[in-house]
């Protein structure tokens, strides 16, 4: 048995959220047909579906070292120089929830793009149904490659007419960790929003520094949105990160939502909490407007 100390925070959070009830969920075949991952458990029947009215959407082919990285983008149709928001996905790959988030951001006026940065593994993560089979693949992603992939995604969006002078990033679960890492890396980034992103990593030579260790290197303001009931990222750890950033004189804000477990924004999962998710989404918008990503 692997000890919890050897697990990533998001892995602990993902595996310790008990389904509220089996009612109100899609069958596995319907969920798979709709494009949702099954690794996180049953898929809720009343998922949020964002239409493409007024949007341009489609696949992205992003030039990276050694080839092309797939992705998914959405942008407001007919709008010149929209701001760019990168969407850093969970550990489950580029499935329908992440694509819907991309469309939601486009409805707010952004050129949003989610890179499929686990593509080099040669496995479709959205089709893996068990977290223990998934984690070794995603845990093998080097931070150096991840950061390069995110830079390449921003460059691709710029080449397509996006305004990277107003560059933001939002991420969920492992993608929330990516937000912190990218904010310490990119001098181009204007603001980031991390939904329940890991702050302290288990030992992994591919991840030289955890977000907590990078507190003093943050180059952009970050909003951290966390759940009080997250079993992998306890509120005390969030307060520790808050203190580290304050001590380093870095701009960041945090909201710990009462009653919210890990994954509280993921409307396809049993962990979804509608009220807290809606409030968090509103805070994300306000943060991006404050730092001139969104107008």
TrEMBL record:
Pfam families referenced in this protein's UniProt entry, alphabetically: DLH
Sample GO molecular function, one term: hydrolase activity
Protein name: Carboxymethylenebutenolidase
Domain Dienelactone hydrolase, residue spans: 69-291
Domain of life according to the entry: Bacteria
Annotated source species: Afipia felis
Record InterPro entries: AB_hydrolase_fold, Dienelactn_hydro, Dienelactone_hydrolase-like, TAT_signal
């Amino acid at each position: 048995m692997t000890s919890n100390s050897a697990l990533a925070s998001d892995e602990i959070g993902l595996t310790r959220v008990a389904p509220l009830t089996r009612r109100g969920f899609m069958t596995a075949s319907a969920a798979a047909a709709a494009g949702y991952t099954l690794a996180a458990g049953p898929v809720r029947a009343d998922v949020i579906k964002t239409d493409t009215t007024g949007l341009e959407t489609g696949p992205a082919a992003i030039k990276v070292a050694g080839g092309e990285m797939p992705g998914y983008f959405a942008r407001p149709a007919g709008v010149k120089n929209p701001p760019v928001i990168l969407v850093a996905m969970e550990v489950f790959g580029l499935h329908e929830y992440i694509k819907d988030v991309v469309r939601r951001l486009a409805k707010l006026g952004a050129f949003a793009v989610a890179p499929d940065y686990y593509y080099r593994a040669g496995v479709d993560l959205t089709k893996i149904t068990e977290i223990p089979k998934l984690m070794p693949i995603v845990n093998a992603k080097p931070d150096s490659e991840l950061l390069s992939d995110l830079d390449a995604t921003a460059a691709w969006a710029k080449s397509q007419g996006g305004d990277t002078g107003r560059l933001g990033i939002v991420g969920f679960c492992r993608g929330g960790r990516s937000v912190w890492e990218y904010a310490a890396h990119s001098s181009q980034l204007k603001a980031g929003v991390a939904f329940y992103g890991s702050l302290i990593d288990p030992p992994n030579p591919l991840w030289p520094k955890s977000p907590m260790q990078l507190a003093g290197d943050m180059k952009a303001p970050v909003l951290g949105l966390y759940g009080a009931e997250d079993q992998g990222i306890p509120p005390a750890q969030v307060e520790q990160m808050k203190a580290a950033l304050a001590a380093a004189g870095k701009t960041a804000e945090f909201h710990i939502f009462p009653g919210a477990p890990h994954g509280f924004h993921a409307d396809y999962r049993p962990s979804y909490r509608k009220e807290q998710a809606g409030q968090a989404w509103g805070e994300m918008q306000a943060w991006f407007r404050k730092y001139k990503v969104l107008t």
